[in-house]
Amino acid sequence: MKVFITGGAGFIGSHLAERLLAGGHQVLVLDNLSTGAMANIDPYLDNPSFDYRIGTVRDGPLVRELVDRCDITVHLAAAVGVRLIVEQPVHTIETNVHGTEVVLDSVSRKRKPIVLASTSEVYGKSDKIPFAEADDLVMGATTHARWAYACSKALDEWLGLAYHRDKGVPVTVVRLFNTVGPRQTGQYGMVLPTFAAQAVAGEPITVFGTGEQARCFCHVDDAVRSIEGLMLDESAAGQVFNVGSDREVTINRLAEMVREEAGSDSEILHIPYDEAYAEGFEDMQRRVPDVTKLERTLGYRPETSLEQIVSDVVAEQRAALQSA
Ligand SMILES: NC(=O)c1ccc[n+]([C@@H]2O[C@H](COP(=O)([O-])OP(=O)(O)OC[C@H]3O[C@@H](n4cnc5c(N)ncnc54)[C@H](O)[C@@H]3O)[C@@H](O)[C@H]2O)c1
User: 67, 72, 169, 204 — which has fewest CB within 10 A?
Assistant: First the structure.
């Protein structure tokens, strides 16, 4: 199968490319390298089953040409990361809404299947534990820029499901929860690579807020395995799936785990949200996926332990520090 991956030079996209190539598929990547990097796809450049183009998903003619060359599309390109979203709300909304519109319009012309990446952020401020796919989405005020990401992704979901219903396009939505692992950069506010880089450098580990907020972290290998499974399952079309781990950890405990794994004596420093982001920043205490539907559909649930995840990320940051 020939798979078109938008955002394929990014963190999740490059792992998906690697997995698909290893499984005998062909891969075509489109990426504008805004948060992705050539280094992520360097290892595949000599592979005859791999090809890439540098460009934007907002370029209709280019996207149509690449969609036409492939059997299926996985749309991952997006403006991501809480820091980027708070700092560049116009860029976020335009990339996520218009980019997805272009990609959906392109696949709809020949009714080609597509997997659309959404996010756990769409559950918003809901305090329900765990989040199931049919639950209500509870958004914050439009005056808080951080909700622009959630709303833009929710609109992508609405549009994707509308293409499925109105035009018969096989659209599958994956709501990714925190996904972590090698190649994720801490540059845009991602917590685990940031902690790991700080710990191996012996710098203070900066925890935003009280640190008692909890999250569930899924290894990228598990996430791309799930994306591939849903991509190959025709019965998944028209549906939404949570993809993530349901093991919770507080951010304080995560900081301690990283420090222990790194053998570091870094101080754990708490920074109020208002200082880390803009005043009035809102965050959720807990965010746990209900992965029953994923497990029922694929016969599989994300399984890499948090200890392994922390170990992989610390090892990568240590290697980066040593080669710097
Ligand atoms: N990593 C996570 O924890 C997580 C959680 C929820 C959802 N997601 C979603 O998964 C997808 C991939 O995220 P990621 O973590 O790999 O982040 P990433 O930033 O590494 O990947 C996004 C990629 O899209 C590219 N891109 C951005 N705008 C583009 C444009 N206009 N045209 C072409 N390429 C463009 C970037 O250069 C980057 O390579 C995103 O849709 C994101 O919303 C990720």
Answer: 204
Q: Is the CB of 14 under 6 A from ligand 1?
A: no
Q: What is the pTM of this model?
A: 0.95
Residue 224 CB less than 6 A away from ligand 1: no
Query: For residue 185, how far is its CA from the centre of ligand 1 (angstroms)?
Result: 11
Per the CB < 8 A criterion, the answer to whether 13 and 184 are in contact is no
Q: Does 7 contact ligand 1 (Cβ within 6 A)?
A: yes
Check if 123 is active-site: no
Specify the CATH superfamily of domain 2-179+218-244+285-303.
NAD(P)-binding Rossmann-like Domain (3.40.50.720)
* 324 residues of the chain, pLDDT tens digit each: 999 999 999 999 999 999 999 999 999 999 999 999 999 999 999 999 999 999 999 999 999 999 999 999 999 999 986 677 788 889 989 999 999 999 999 999 999 999 999 999 999 999 999 999 999 999 999 988 888 899 999 999 999 999 999 999 999 999 999 999 999 887 766 899 999 999 999 999 999 999 999 999 999 999 999 999 999 999 999 999 999 999 999 999 999 999 999 999 999 999 987 777 665 566 788 999 999 999 999 998 888 999 999 999 999 999 998 887
DSSP state letter for 43:
G
